[in-house]
């Protein structure tokens, strides 16, 4: 399972979305022998999920049913654990368009936060591009690395824990675009310029 490559079959270790309705869904890490409780009853991962196709209708122990969906950046934005205030899909689509991102683009982001925008940027630049994302808060940076690894996109992203206003992005003259989501973006303009290629785009 990868957030940037669709897989037909649910596998042990996948992150899947349990869909009860448009106003009720949540992510679950699929694990052999595990169970997930819903208002319709228990879902047994070994028998109800692993080996089934994404999009399957799964009957829970009380007789109610749910759908199991393949994760996407949009679904993750709706269901992720909030470590910070996040950007939502409408704003993300505008940012992606204004930065003129496409497969193969190199993009720098600060800060990583809850990873909502990061997942969308990674999907946009895949399979040959790369995201360099900087997070000031150490625990948030470590959690972002863990999620990117679990979501099968760690080869497309580099997470750095530092103050971008003081230390920059750790790269020079490689980025097609830079996005600054920090309290004082003007303090990082010099580092953004250093990270950008001559013809790159910057937004904040």
From TrEMBL:
All copies of domain tRNA (adenine(58)-N(1))-methyltransferase catalytic subunit TRM61 C-terminal, residue ranges: 64-201
Any one of the GO BP annotations: tRNA methylation
Molecular functions (GO terms): tRNA (adenine(58)-N1)-methyltransferase activity
Subcellular compartments: Nucleus
The entry's keywords: Methyltransferase, Nucleus, S-adenosyl-L-methionine, Transferase, tRNA processing
PROSITE patterns referenced in this protein's UniProt entry, alphabetically: SAM_TRM61
CC terms in the record's Gene Ontology section: nucleus; tRNA (m1A) methyltransferase complex
List of residues binding S-adenosyl-L-methionine: 114-117, 135, 181
Name listed for the protein in its UniProt record: tRNA (adenine(58)-N(1))-methyltransferase
EC number in record: 2.1.1.220
Record Pfam families: GCD14
């Amino acid at each position: 399972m990868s957030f940037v490559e669709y897989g037909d079959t649910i596998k042990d270790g996948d992150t899947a979305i349990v869909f009860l309705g448009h106003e009720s869904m949540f992510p679950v890490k699929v694990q052999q022998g595990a169970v997930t409780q819903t208002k319709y009853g228990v879902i047994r991962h070994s028998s109800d999920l692993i080996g089934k196709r994404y999009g399957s209708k799964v009957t829970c122990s009380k007789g109610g049913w749910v759908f199991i969906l393949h994760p996407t950046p949009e679904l993750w934005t709706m269901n992720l654990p909030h470590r910070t205030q996040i950007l939502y899909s409408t704003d993300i689509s505008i940012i992606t368009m204004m930065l003129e991102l496409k497969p193969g683009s190199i993009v720098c982001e600060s800060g990583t936060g809850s990873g909502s925008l990061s997942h969308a940027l990674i999907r946009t630049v895949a399979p040959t591009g790369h995201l360099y994302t900087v997070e000031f808060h150490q625990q948030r940076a470590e959690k972002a690395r863990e999620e990117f690894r679990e979501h099968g996109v760690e080869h497309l992203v580099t997470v750095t824990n530092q103050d971008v206003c003081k230390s920059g992005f750790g790269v020079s003259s490689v980025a097609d675009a830079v996005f600054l989501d920090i309290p004082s973006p003007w303090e990082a303009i010099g580092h953004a310029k250093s990270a950008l290629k001559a013809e790159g785009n910057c937004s904040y």
